[in-house]
Structures are given as structure tokens and as C-alpha cells.
Design brief:
With about 425 residues, the protein is α/β, with parallel strands linked by helices. Helix 12 links the parallel strand 9 and strand 10. The mean pLDDT is about 95.
Amino acid sequence: MTELEQYANELADQAREASLVLMKESGEKRAAAIRSAAAKIEERVDAILEANAKDLDAAVDLPAATVGRLKLDAAKVAKIAKALREIADQPDPLGRVLHGEVRPNGLRLEKRAVPLGVVLFIYESRPNVTADAAALCLKSGNAVILRGGKEAAHSAAALFAPIREAIIEAGLPENSVQLVDRPDRELVPMLLAHGDAIDVAIPRGGKGLIQAVTESARMPVLKHLDGNCHLYVHADAATWSDGEKSVADMLVNAKTSYPGGGVCNAVEHVLFHREAMPLLPAACDALAAADVDVRGDDAVREAWPSAKPVEPAEWDEEYLALIVSLKVVGSLDEAVAHINRHGSRHTDGILTRDTQAAEAFVAGVDSASVTVNASTRFADGGEYGLGAEIGISTDKLHARGPMGAGDLCSYKWIVTGDGHLRP
């Protein structure tokens, strides 16, 4: 056995041992550790920013969008601490009775929420994710192994240190949260082979990372795949009053509210109903004024000649950049069919005041989040009141959409009788 294999074994075994203790600890104790971690992070803001500067110094060859996600400042560190407190203040997700009944024979049944056990979380360049994932797993009683990207290694270590101290001071198992401190790529498949000790793997990053994890894992994988998000502008949008939020405002926000547009919940494709076409030129003008590269089908280019042609393969593409493609459709059903064919089941929305159209869209689109008259950018754990998210699952089992502490739970059946014997 190599030294690296021994390291992977120790991480997995230590996490399993910690999980069996952590699952029995009180919600108050787990929440206190998270609050303490938040306070310690605030106290060490200078050290955290100094560590982040080292990562930024080494990021000279990374894309601008990646560097933007990597960079911390005092306000962002304060936001990390705030998210941890919001997680701590939530009701304890463990022990919830998901179902209860007394059977005709007198047996009492309860279906109670319990931790998943051990989470292997593999992620890329956002430093805040280290703290978010640690807090969400502690809140839900799960032990977690954190394997971050090398581009944020110094930042992750600086955030991990106060979290670990808070865990130990609270009397929780010190290996409840472990940070992988070795950059070796070979370590990831070694950890993914531990289906005996690790209950679930959660990759958060690019498609290549997620595919690699899925192919190697010997445990279930909760995937956060592409964010090929759509907005559909329904026919009645052309009749909206001047006092209402304009379609142009909605599209610009959904595309550009995060610098560079490089986030999974930014809109990538817009479908205009033929009857809403009078709104299209102003919407395109507004997008272009916000430095968005506007592309479109023939009908779009006829109405707004400055649009670049869109290639057929682009309808399946998540741009992760300031690019948006527009298409004209003849009906709501056509819009829904297009989204279900080309979308990634992440977040898709409709702009309409027609409640029947809205309900038809919600029922027909197969997506984890569906917005009605709201920007797709709201698909986020913080915006959903979860404090933070460990990822946005585009799977259907066992969680879907932004995953908070409550989504990191499984359940067990409790059967209570009075000397019952099965006939």
C-alpha cells in the first residue's frame, strides 16, 4: 500500500468514526459549533485575506471569471460568517418525523430524518464553499471530507482552521470536518473507491470534474451539472403596463447580475412568443448595452439585425459568459418542448401575467427550479432561505435544486409495538 493510499484510508475511516458519534450529538451542540466558527472567521479576516492573496498571486493564468470567484475581500468574509449563522439558526433537520401513524394492529410507525453519514465533497475555486459545506454538514449531523481545488488551497486552509477549532472546543469529534491537504490528483479516485466508508459524493465544479467523479465513484453521486437556464416571454408580456418591471430589465438581471455572467443560474437562452415580438428589439438593445453578445435565430435577426446567428448546437450550451441566444416560438407548448429537449433541468422561467399559462409552464417544464416573473438568478440556497447550499442538484434522487442542511438527510423507520407478533 502506498503512502497516498494510506492517507485516503485514514481520511475515510476517521470520517466514518466521527459520523457515528456526530449523529448522536444534540442539535444545540452542533449549532453552537457553527456559531463559534462564524465568530472565529470574523476574528481572522486579515489572515484569511492574506491567504487568499497567495491564491490570487498564483492565478495569473486562470480565466477572469474564475479569478472573480476566487477573490475574497472583507465584505465577502463577513458574508461567509453571516451564512454560517443563518445555517446555525435554522431548525434542527434531524429527528423530524416525516411520517407517523398507528396501524390497525396497534403498531406505531415513525419515519424520522437522520444524517446521510459521510459526505465526500469535491469542489473547485470558490473559497466560501469550504465554510458553507462544513456548516451544512455539521448542521445535518454528517461528517465531511472536503477536497477543494488547488487554486484556492491557501484560502480553504485559512477558513478550515477556525472551523476545526470551533468543532474541537464544542466537544464534537475533531474529524467531523476534514480538509484534504494534498494536491495529488490520484487521491480523488482513491477516496471515491471507499464506498464502504463514504455514503455519498458531491462534486461541484465543471462538467469534466463531475463526469470524472461519477465514473469513478463507488457510492451514490449527487450531481450539479450544467446550468443551461431559459426564460420564456409569453404572449401577454406585450400588454404589460408601463409601471411594471420590463422584460428587458428581467433579462438583463438574469444574464448580468453576476459579473461576467459565469454562474450556473444565469439565463443562457430566451424564448419569445411570436406575439411578444414587439418587446424584442428593446430587450436586445438593453442586453447589448450591458455588453452581452446577443445571438438569435432568423426571426430574431430580422427583428434586430445586429444579432449574430446562433448555431444549432448552441441551444444545448451553457455559455458561462456574457452571451445569450434568442429564439422565437409560436406557443407555450413549443417553448416547453424546447426547454425539455435542450435544457439541463436546472432553472427555467416564464414571464407572464396569465395564471393559466404560468401553471401550464410550471407543470410542463422538467426542472429543479421554475421561476414565474422572477429572475433565474434567484435559484440559490441563500435566496431560498437555506443559509447556503452544498450544491444545486440537477438529479431527481434523492435531492433536487439548491441543497441545504435538510437535503443532506436520509430517514429511518421506527416501529414500536407492545409484544406484537406477525401472524
